[in-house]
Design brief:
The protein is α/β, with parallel strands linked by helices. It has 2 domains: 143 residues, Medium-chain alcohol dehydrogenases, catalytic domain (Quinone Oxidoreductase, Chain A, domain 1, Alpha-Beta Complex), CATH 3.90.180.10; 140 residues, NAD(P)-binding Rossmann-like Domain (Rossmann fold), CATH 3.40.50. 26% of the residues lie in helices and 27% in strands. Strands 3, 5, 6, 7, 8, 15 and 16 form a 7-stranded mixed beta sheet that branches. The longest helix is centred in the middle third of the chain and has 23 residues. Bound molecules: NADP nicotinamide-adenine-dinucleotide phosphate (NAP). The site of NADP nicotinamide-adenine-dinucleotide phosphate (NAP) has 31 residues, from helix 1, helix 2 and helix 3.
Length: 339
């Protein structure tokens, strides 16, 4: 890969492994210090994902080699490119492809990205809209695509979304509502109910339902479910699906493990699948095209639930997010919140 020439230093949040502990701090770097890539990008927005919070605080082994600039996604403007596919001034998106894991990622004013990892901001989206949607919306879209392949229609019944007030939950509700589905939002915090309804939830369920006596099979109420939480929530969803209902297993905010029995599978033909947002290219392009058109959520309704922070607020924010004290979608915004 060619070396790019911008020489000024810029601010990053960089993670080091020191005596077995991850330590992340603001530093200054130059492009040549970053992992290799043909395209130099001035960062506009980097989404803050649950995984990024685990990563920079060293709460899970996410980064594969240190030191590393974390941040699994970013939207920015090309400054220099030695790839014929990208040109200065274009706005671009990177997510997955081990960005922030094996390649330096989004928590930096400047990124250097392999062209093979990069795409233009999809048609129908401004750079800011693309950043707002980001990995959470893409993940929800992967779930919806698979539900529809499995036969889900708007007439099938409600789609449950757990961890509803988080980033994936918020996007899932807004996308499902745009696509015409009935949405049952499940949250631990009923104070969020008006927000969830404004995004398109037709029903809001208190996650305290888990505290009630549990039955081998619960009332069959959902045609599909997007589970961002795991643990007892996933167990409850498995027991609460209609015949041939499908669950997309996405997240682990409450834990990696869950209890289950065969009953939902052989009594109700439960279908479960995992989602990994690091999708291959044809699927990425197809889903981003849908997110910019038929599945593009009402961005005005999302805007009040988008929080912009600066790089120096990120460590504190990450702690809050892992404690479950945040809601909506958060971006580290480098050039202001409008572009
Ligand atoms: N598979 C993939 O490719 C993929 C992609 C993106 C994200 N994820 C995963 O999906 C999950 C959600 O991500 P996110 O970005 O939406 O995170 P988030 O913004 O932190 O949202 C998580 C939500 O889960 C609920 N929650 C938090 N802590 C909880 C706990 N201890 N017990 C029960 N519920 C809890 C909260 O919603 P309420 O307050 O409404 O209950 C919270 O807002 C994470 O595990 C993340 O790693 C996976």
């Amino acid at each position: 890969m060619n070396t790019l020439t911008l020489s000024a230093s810029f601010e990053v949040l960089r993670s080091h492994l020191i005596d077995g502990q991850v330590q992340s701090a603001l530093e200054r770097m130059r492009p040549d210090d970053l992992s290799p890539g043909e395209v130099l990008v001035r960062n506009l927005h980097a989404g803050v994902n649950y995984k990024d919070c685990l990563s920079i605080l060293g709460k899970a082994k996410i980064i594969s080699d240190f030191p590393r600039v974390a941040g699994i996604e970013a939207v920015g403007t090309v400054i220099e490119s030695s790839s014929p596919s990208f040109h200065p001034g274009e706005t671009v998106l990177v997510h997955g492809h081990e960005t922030g894991i094996r390649f330096d990622g989004g928590f930096a004013e400047i990124l250097r990205v392999p062209a093979a990892h990069l795409q233009q901001v999809p048609p129908g989206l401004t750079p800011l809209e693309c950043a707002v949607l980001g990995v959470p919306a893409f993940t929800a879209a992967m779930a919806l695509e698979r539900f529809e392949e499995l036969g889900l229609t708007r007439e099938s019944g409600p789609v449950a979304v757990s961890g509803a007030s988080g980033a994936v939950g918020t996007m899932a509700i807004a996308i499902l509502a745009k696509a015409g589905y009935e949405v049952a939002a499940i949250t631990r915090n009923l104070a969020h109910a008006p927000v969830l309804q404004s995004l398109g939830a037709t029903e809001v369920i208190d996650a305290a339902v888990l505290d009630q006596p549990q039955r081998a099979l619960e009332k069959a109420r959902f045609a599909a479910a997007i589970d961002n939480v795991g643990g007892p929530m996933l167990s409850w969803l498995m027991r609460s699906m209609q015949d041939s209902g499908a669950i997309a297993v996405i997240g682990n905010a409450a834990g990696n493990t869950f209890e289950g029995s065969g009953l939902p599978f052989f009594m109700r033909r439960l279908q479960m699948f995992g989602v990994n947002a690091n999708a291959p290219w044809p699927q990425r392009q197809c889903l981003w095209e849908r997110l910019g058109s038929t599945w593009k959520p009402d961005m005005e309704k999302l805007t009040p639930h988008v929080h912009h922070i600066s790089l120096n607020q990120l460590m504190d924010y990450a702690g809050q997010q892992l404690r479950g004290n945040t809601s909506g979608r958060t971006l580290v915004s480098f050039q202001g919140r409008r572009s």
